TrEMBL record:
GO biological process terms, semicolon-separated: hydrogen peroxide catabolic process; response to oxidative stress
Binding site for heme b: H174
Keywords on record: Calcium, Disulfide bond, Glycoprotein, Heme, Hydrogen peroxide, Iron, Metal-binding, Oxidoreductase, Peroxidase, Secreted, Signal
Keyword Signal: yes
Subcellular location, principal: secreted
Domain Plant heme peroxidase family profile: 22-296
Signal peptide residues on this chain, from the entry's feature table: 1-21
One MF annotation (Gene Ontology) recorded for this entry: heme binding
Family the UniProt entry places it in: Belongs to the peroxidase family. Ascorbate peroxidase subfamily.
Record's catalysed reaction(s): 2 a phenolic donor + H2O2 = 2 a phenolic radical donor + 2 H2O
Site for Transition state stabilizer, residues: R59
Annotated S-S bridges: C32-C112, C65-C70, C118-C292, C181-C202
Name of protein: Peroxidase
Length: 297
């Protein structure tokens, strides 16, 4: 069943409305036929060493798309005169997986230099990550404040052309990956319940900036409905998660997703495709960077 789910999820993730956005499935089949294979190989090799990298790559794709569109700008390093996206508070130190993109890009430049864009490599890597965690059974976050309420979240997503329903669907990416305790503490220590185990993992006043906890304690490495089960049971990790239960429409979607993994998976794939079209550069727009970390000179 899980293999069938992974196949369906991947197929939907690949379907892009090419006429509307000038995007095309299999775009590199003629110019660099090994492009997707090379990226998938890099992701698989990284996943073998660290299963958590799948969530990191998925989250990185989200953060890239929600700032200036899906242009790969989140991969660029800071310089002495410019603080890059990757070093902004929502991204540093939580984003990870940059070395996977570097590895894929280096191999591709050796095979077909100047052809495959960094943005496409990142999109492929996110897609392959979803496939891996589906077969093996997303830290997914957006550039939103973790204390946002449902109205603020709805507006943030609407600004990117995504509906409230798609916001709830994409929030489910929090079912895989991990969070720094510093991000969890604001809700954890203003919480009416006990949450004893989580408080032991993230003690109040902790000064270790690298201390992390799984987003979904039951199945942190499996892309499933666990996020919605937690939110429905008042165990949402962040305020921006639990706020989904304060609105009748979003609460109904949480309950529906909590009880139907296949339904949520299908909606998630479709929403990921739509998100992946935000501000995409096509044709002669932008540039094919030789190194994803720096702009071509």
């Amino acid at each position: 069943m899980m293999m069938k789910l992974a196949g369906a999820l991947l197929l939907m993730f690949l379907v892009v409305h090419g006429v509307e956005c000038q995007l095309q499935v299999g775009f590199y089949s003629g110019s660099c036929g090994l492009a997707e294979f090379v990226v998938k190989t890099a992701v698989r090799q990284a996943f073998i060493n660290d299963r958590g990298v799948a969530a990191g790559l998925l989250r990185m794709h989200f953060h890239d798309c929600f700032v200036r569109g899906c242009d790969g700008s989140v991969l660029i390093d800071s310089t002495s005169s410019n603080t890059a996206e990757k070093d902004s508070p929502p991204n540093n130190p939580s984003l990870r997986g940059f070395e996977v993109i570097d590895a894929a890009k280096s191999r591709l430049e050796g095979i077909c230099g100047g052809v495959v864009s960094c943005a496409d490599i990142l999109a492929f890597a996110a897609r392959d990550s979803v496939e891996l965690v589906s077969i093996k059974s997303m830290t997914v976050g957006f550039n939103v404040r973790l204390r946002s309420n449902v109205g603020q979240l709805t507006q943030i997503f609407a600004n990117k052309g995504l509906s409230q329903a798609e916001m709830v669907t994409l929030s489910g990416g929090h079912t895989i990956g991990r969070s720094h305790c510093s991000s969890v503490a604001p809700r954890l220590y203003n919480f009416n319940g006990t949450a004893t185990a989580l408080k032991q993992q993230c003690p109040q006043g902790n000064s270790n900036a690298n201390l992390v906890v799984p987003m979904d304690a039951i199945s942190p490495a499996v892309l499933d409905e666990g996020y919605y089960v937690d939110v429905f049971s008042n165990r949402g990790m962040f305020t921006s998660d639990q706020t989904l239960m304060t609105n009748a429409a979003t609460a109904a979607q949480v309950g529906q997703n909590a009880g139907n993994r296949m339904l949520w998976s299908a909606k998630f794939a479709a929403a990921m495709v739509k998100m992946g079209q935000i501000g995409v550069l096509t044709g002669s727009s932008g540039e094919i960077r030789a190194n994803c970390r720096v702009v071509n000179s």
